[in-house]
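Bug #77: duplicate submission created two jobs. Keeping one. Sequence:
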Amino acid sequence: MITEKTVPRIGAAAALLILTIAFSPAASLLADAPYKAIRFKVDVTPAIGLDLAYCPNNKVDMPIYVGGVILDDGAARVVWCTCDYIHLSGETYENWQKKIADAAGCPPEHVFLHVVHQHDSMRVAPEYNPPAGAVDDQGKPLPLVGSDPDYVSKSIGDITAEIGRLVAEDAWVPIAGLKTAETRVGGLASNRRLVDESGKCVAMRFSMDTDPAHQAWPTGVIDPMLRTVALVKEDGGVYAALHFYASHPQAAYRRSMVSGDVPGWAVRYAREKTPGTEHFYFNGCGGNVTFGKYNPSADAEAIAALGTRLGEYLVKNLSRLEDRAGGPIRLYRVEITLPFDPERANPDHAAWGMRAYFEKTMEHWRKAPITRFNAGEVNILSFGLSEPCVEYQLYAQELVPENFLATAANANGIYDYMPLAKAFDEGGYESQPTSCLVTPEIEPVLKNGIREVLADLIAHPGWEGAPRK
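Kept job's structure:
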């Protein structure tokens, strides 16, 4: 049975909900809280001719997938799901979360649904599409900016059918425990905000940057660590590995071909090198981070080179896994109240699309979740937001330096960028009205939420996270 209680708020912008587990007598006798798991993977590659986020799909460069693991400790069940999409947004995001929860047999709040954010992929949000039959000034049909509705319907149908089939067939694999690894990555992530001595953002180092002057700038503020959580079977083999790294994921895009880009290549590489293990990639708070310093081109060779480099690090993490004390699954959830700026949401430039949809539904999205998954010594922080900047992930790491903490972001794409307060004075892409819906107050609100969801670990460094009395 799952119980939920509200704890008095530490700050004015967030309420902490602790989801704890009431154990049966049999479950409480299990010393290390053993787990069982099901992994799933569904091909969601769009057909030739469908619209991608920025251009039509004329070729399959690389298949794209939705996949992850269902983890169960006998008293609680969660789903970690990652999608090879640029965005999964709005009501569609919420509907997918509920449908996956129904198929897996758990509450929607237990479904950690994230996208990798590749740009040569689908923007899954049919609510953004123009009305049927709408045309431009020349009489040409307006493109579908939120994906073909039939594609969206078929994709979630295939995903839930596969999860439902595996659960119905009792395809559970016993998991002896969770292990983790952390490796410092070089030659991939770099901060794209080039801020000079005057405190102004003078240039942006985007994902593909051919300007030698931009590449000469220092790497800048990043989180260089690749973090891995491995589900280890009773025979010692790794059943599934969840990898977490913070950066925009693309080395090339707007090529009119669907692609899993650098993470897709890396996961395929790692799978080939570690037979029997499925790898799942989650993007951290990489809103202001790209591969731009190390990617002067925009072609298939760049994807192969950077994808192989990332794949080698995924494999390296599996070779250096550390044991972690087990424990029951617990979820600590905070709901923050976002400081939206209605003027930024005003879609004067378009009668349809994300901004028009957001303006009509803004009040529905004011509350957004931050959730911490905890199992013994393993913690994963999940932002229910789109693109928080990397400083928020680093802030969380600084609060609990003695604990293992991985981070996943890029969840509901409705929220757009979450910059620091100073970015509004510095300038740059992340704080522009076309990219950002919030005010500078987002920084204290978001940091307060992070502190609240990590409160137990802050109070007890290195602690396993026992339930509050």
